């Protein structure tokens, strides 16, 4: 037996050191194991919060109230399918709400639709399950949605903010889950002469909200003896606006879009001014198209324009639908321009140009070019003035001045010097444009041409101003930019007995302004009347029929017990009498005509309420019509609920408005001022495949109070247990190190003594 084998083991011997090393390694492994377990459980207990280092793919992150941790935002992708048959379009919008995080979320998305859309269908698709939405009064629908959300049930709620702005709220989207929401609506296409067009808006532009007091009206009865009563306030007109992502953060909310077109006549050119398209023709009457790029960011409106072949378009269309015991009719008729043109009266033209911050970039260039074009087309006998506005106002001349060289030179220099900046205080500019110092002058036609993107939220105040102070003026709105407020522009021109023209690109300025001035120069079709076979039982809209300008069709919707007899339309075109008769029983049967009639009636009721102020009476009728025809309106909403709870009890639900892109061509700093985030603190991660999602580092921790309100009161039991075990293991590790240090010292002393 060797000396070593006979000698007792001591702390400094190899065997003693091997035992110590094994013990030390065991402690280290246990500590690392429990630390990893603690981190994993702590991360799982954060309710879906992540750190920047946890992000492995493209995502949008929202602030939480816990420093350094963020909530992955729901992502959105949209697919649009549009079927056009004759003058009617049916659109299905599928929105995919995607939760990339580990927590349960509620997403809210503010999105636009055409201002004349009749939204009638909501479907929520969860796996193989399809849940149909139901129409309910707005307050009841909201209550049903909130109850479902609280109970952990999946639910969707479609609400109207404006006739062209809607919100889609989707509750209880599970971790890594996708929910499909399908919305369907119907509308009529726009026609101007031989040009047909269809518009699908893709982004709600930021709206400027003036800070004014809410007015209250006092009613004095004829026998009140001086005592008046304050009328009830008008319904809330606030607009819920989504957060807007800074363009430096990249594009989000990708859209795919396809259109099938059956015009009913031989097709000529089919174009899209703002998007590249892939076009396929199917015979003379039909065509289909898709976006040339499979996906595009939702940052500008899609517009499709089609024209007939050289043979010309039909001048009349008649469709009908039988629902229950009633027939619904849609009539579209383009009157002739008239062979005799009377001498046009000279004009008093008032040009109003918006140079607020939302008009910066291409929009300002388009507006200035359009106004310069219009000034060059004034005749020597015309008078004019120019008004510009942002949050301030400038009226160029004290009154309208003759359109001769010196005045025009001053005006052109003024227009060329304009720069976009500031807020959008439109009401003072509108008031100034309607001030008519020559109201009794019947030798001139007074025309107000308003160039703006309409990015305001106080539309109701502006409508009041137009209807109350229009006088002999006629208001022509020109929508500028990639995402104008078409609802305001269209309704303002209707109330102002003018027309709406949209210019979305510089290349459209000459064509669109030429069309507008052609209308301004040509007499309107006036004194239009519609005589139905049985006026007592027929309800038709609009009523009365408005005046028309060159190339504009008459569009009527009607409901009657039975479609029989003859509709007679009369009017004057260029001073000559005009009449046409249509056998209404000859209309082609087409689904959806009833909903279009209901939408037109709701529009008329809304307009009547704004003018007369009888909100209670009109609101009751709006609710009745919308419920009867299953339509979303200001008073009704669509709600879909999956009765099976999906979110487990105890799981937190976070909620956040989903951001949107800044409209194409807008300048973020001009609209919002200095960025809320410093450029140095912005971080981007790679795009997440087809989702086009860009990750952004949220605001500094100092701004965490503006983030999601997550509980910060106490740590849960699992975290306490793991924390205690970690503390014990650390203490044991320190004890082991102390023990090893003592034995190392003892062994070294023993070796020196030997």
Low-pLDDT sequence parts = 1-15, 40-46, 675-721
Name the beta content range. Answer: 25-35%
Number of strands: 38
- How much is the radius of gyration in Å? 34 Å
Our count of helices gives: 13
Rounded mean pLDDT is 79
The multimeric state of the shown protein is single chain
The shape is globular
Account of the 3D structure:
- The structure is a single chain.
- The chain has 754 residues and is an alpha+beta fold.
- 26% of the residues lie in helices and 31% in strands.
- The protein is built from 13 helices and 38 strands.
- Strands 3, 4, 6, 7, 11, 16, 18, 19 and 20 form a 9-stranded mixed β-sheet that branches.
- A hairpin with a 3-residue loop joins strand 18 and strand 19.
- Helix 4 crosses helix 9.
- The chain is globular.
- The N terminus is likely disordered.
Please write out the topology.
Blueprint: H1 3-6, H2 14-44, E1 61-63, E2 70-72, E3 75-85, E4 88-98, E5 104-112, E6 118-126, E7 129-132, E8 134-137, H3 138-150, E9 153-162, E10 165-173, E11 178-188, E12 190-192, E13 195-200, E14 218-219, E15 229-230, E16 254-262, E17 267-271, E18 277-282, E19 286-291, E20 296-297, E21 302-308, E22 316-323, E23 326-333, E24 347-354, H4 362-376, E25 383-389, E26 393-395, E27 401-402, H5 405-416, H6 426-434, E28 445-452, H7 459-469, E29 474-480, H8 486-495, E30 500-503, H9 509-521, E31 525-531, E32 539-541, E33 554-560, E34 566-573, E35 576-583, E36 588-589, H10 593-612, H11 615-628, E37 636-645, E38 653-657, H12 668-672, H13 717-753
Parallel strand pairs: 3-16, 5-38, 22-36, 24-25, 24-28, 28-29, 29-30
Antiparallel strand pairs: 1-2, 3-4, 4-11, 5-10, 6-7, 6-11, 8-37, 9-10, 9-37, 12-13, 13-21, 14-15, 16-19, 16-20, 17-21, 18-19, 22-23, 23-33, 25-26, 25-27, 31-34, 32-33, 34-35
């Amino acid at each position: 037996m060797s000396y070593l084998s006979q000698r007792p083991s001591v702390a400094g011997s190899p065997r003693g050191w091997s035992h110590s090393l094994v013990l030390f390694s065991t402690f280290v492994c246990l500590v690392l194991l429990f630390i990893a377990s603690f981190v994993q459980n702590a991360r799982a207990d954060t309710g879906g919060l992540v750190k920047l280092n946890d992000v492995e793919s493209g995502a949008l992150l929202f602030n939480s109230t816990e420093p350094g941790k963020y909530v992955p935002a729901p992502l959105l992708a949209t697919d649009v399918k549009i079927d056009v048959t004759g003058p009617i379009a049916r659109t299905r919008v599928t929105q995919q709400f995607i939760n990339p995080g580990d927590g349960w979320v509620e997403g809210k998305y503010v999105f636009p639709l055409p201002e004349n859309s009749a939204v009638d269908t909501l479907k929520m698709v969860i796996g193989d399950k399809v849940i149909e939405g139901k129409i309910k009064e707005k307050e009841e629908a909201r209550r049903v949605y909130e109850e479902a959300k609280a109970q952990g049930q999946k639910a969707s709620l479609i609400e109207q903010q404006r006739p062209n702005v809607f919100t889609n709220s989707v509750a209880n989207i599970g971790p890594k889950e996708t929910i499909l929401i399908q919305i369907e609506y119907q509308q009529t296409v726009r026609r101007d002469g031989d040009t047909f067009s269809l518009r699908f808006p893709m982004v709600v532009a930021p709206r400027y909200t003036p800070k004014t007091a809410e007015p209250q009206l006092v009613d004095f009865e004829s026998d009140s003896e001086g005592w008046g009563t304050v009328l009830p306030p008008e319904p809330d007109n606030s607009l819920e606006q989504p957060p807007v992502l800074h363009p430096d953060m990249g594009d989000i909310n990708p859209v795919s879009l396809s259109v099938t077109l059956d015009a009913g006549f031989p097709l000529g050119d089919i174009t899209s001014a703002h998007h590249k398209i892939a076009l396929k023709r199917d015979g003379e009457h039909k065509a289909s198209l898709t976006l040339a790029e499979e996906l595009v960011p939702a940052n500008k409106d899609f517009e499709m324009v089609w024209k007939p072949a050289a043979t010309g378009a039909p001048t009349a269309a008649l469709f009908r639908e039988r629902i229950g015991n009633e027939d619904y009719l849609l009539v579209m008729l383009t009157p002739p321009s008239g062979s005799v043109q009377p001498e046009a009266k000279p004009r008093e033209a008032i040009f109003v140009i918006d140079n607020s911050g939302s008009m910066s970039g291409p929009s300002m260039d388009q507006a200035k070019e359009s106004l310069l074009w219009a000034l060059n087309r004034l005749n020597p006998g015309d008078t004019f003035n120019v008004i510009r506005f942002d949050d301030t106002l400038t009226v160029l001349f004290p009154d309208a001045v003759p359109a001769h060289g010196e005045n025009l030179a001053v005006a052109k220099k003024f227009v060329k010097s304009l720069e976009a900046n500031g807020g959008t205080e439109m009401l003072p500019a509108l008031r100034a444009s309607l001030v008519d110092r020559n109201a009794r002058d019947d030798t001139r036609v007074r025309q107000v041409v308003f160039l703006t993107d309409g990015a305001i939220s106080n539309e109701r105040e502006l409508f009041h101003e137009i209807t109350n102070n229009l006088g002999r003026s006629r208001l022509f709105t020109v929508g500028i930019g990639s995402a104008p407020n078409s609802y305001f522009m269209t309704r303002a021109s209707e109330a102002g007995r003018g027309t709406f023209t949209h210019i979305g690109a510089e290349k459209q300025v000459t064509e669109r302004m030429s069309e507008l001035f052609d209308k301004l120069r040509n007499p309107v079709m006036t004194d239009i009347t519609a005589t139905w076979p049985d006026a007592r039982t027929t309800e038709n809209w609009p009523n009365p029929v408005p005046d028309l300008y060159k190339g504009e069709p008459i569009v009527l919707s009607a409901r009657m017990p039975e479609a029989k007899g003859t509709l007679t339309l009369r009017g004057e075109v260029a001073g000559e009498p005009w009449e046409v008769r249509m056998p209404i029983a000859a209309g082609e049967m087409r689904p959806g005509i009833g909903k279009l009639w209901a939408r037109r009636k709701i529009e008329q009721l809304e307009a009547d309420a704004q003018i007369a102020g009888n909100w209670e009476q009109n609101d009751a009728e709006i609710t009745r019509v919308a419920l009867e025809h299953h339509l979303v309106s200001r008073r009704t909403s669509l709600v879909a609920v999956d009765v099976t709870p999906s979110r487990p009890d105890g799981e937190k639900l976070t909620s956040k408005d989903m951001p949107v892109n800044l409209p194409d061509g807008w300048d973020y700093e001009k609209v919002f001022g200095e960025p809320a985030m410093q450029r140095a603190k912005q971080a981007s991660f790679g795009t997440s495949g087809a989702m086009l999602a860009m990750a952004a580092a949220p605001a500094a921790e100092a701004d965490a109070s503006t983030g999601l309100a997550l509980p910060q009161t106490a740590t849960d039991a699992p975290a306490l247990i793991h924390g205690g075990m970690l503390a014990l293991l650390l203490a044991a590790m320190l004890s082991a190190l102390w023990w090893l240090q003592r034995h190392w010292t003892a062994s070294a002393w023993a070796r020196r003594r030997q």
